[in-house]
């Protein structure tokens, strides 16, 4: 076989494998689009799931865990921003309220491993209920501020909104896979 023929054969093989890989990606993009279309924020959901682990393993559990990872990362940012804001404020009422919020955020974050275990066991109904509890716990920060008649700092408020949306996306995805 000539060198030119060998190159053509290698190119054909490469194209075949590349085309097959693209077919898998398109199928997974379709699955992601289908799952995310039923969520509170389809674009955020799609962006999150596309950033997750390989599409080849896109089982229901993997999709849910990837969405939980995005929500958990947002929780980490919320905790960091709240901690930083608390350290830079001098008002005792706002400082104490932020400290109480940090306690709630830390407690909510501690529940994520349990939720992940429940998801791995495919008890999506229980996982949904636990996720709603996390959302309530994160939202309790806003209620603390309201009860004291003070405004939630903008950065904290924005992060709470993001975390809440991300956990509602997890809840919506869980509901996609419930019987």
List descriptors.
mainly alpha; elongated; disordered N terminus
Task: Give a structural overview.
The protein is mainly alpha-helical. It has a single domain, classed as Up-down Bundle (Butyryl-CoA Dehydrogenase, subunit A, domain 3). The protein contains seven helices and no strands. Helix 1 (3-36) runs antiparallel to helix 2 (42-50), helix 4 runs antiparallel to helix 6 and helix 6 (124-147) packs antiparallel against helix 7. The longest helix is centred in the first third of the chain and has 34 residues, at 3-36. It is elongated and about 50 Å long. The termini are far apart. InterPro entries: Invertase/methylesterase_inhib, Pectinesterase_inhib_dom. One of its GO terms (molecular function) is enzyme inhibitor activity. It comes from Chenopodium quinoa (Quinoa). Residues 1-27 form the signal peptide. Residues 27-173 form the Pectinesterase inhibitor domain.
Compile the SSE list and pairings.
Layout: H1 3-36, H2 42-50, H3 60-87, H4 92-110, H5 112-120, H6 124-147, H7 154-176
Give a nutshell description of this structure.
The protein is mainly α and 179 residues long. Helix content is 82%, strand content 0%.
Whole-number radius of gyration? 22 Å
Structural class: mainly alpha
Helix % is over 70%
Query: What summary fits the major beta sheet?
Result: none
Mean pLDDT: 85
Count of separate structural domains = 1
Question: What is the distance, rounded to the nearest whole angstrom, between the alpha carbons of the first and last residues?
Answer: 57 Å
Shape: elongated
How many strands in all? 0
CATH architecture level-2 label = Up-down Bundle
Instruction: Assign the CATH class.
Output: Mainly Alpha
Proportion in β-strands: under 5%
What is the name of the CATH topology?
Butyryl-CoA Dehydrogenase, subunit A, domain 3
Number of helices: 7
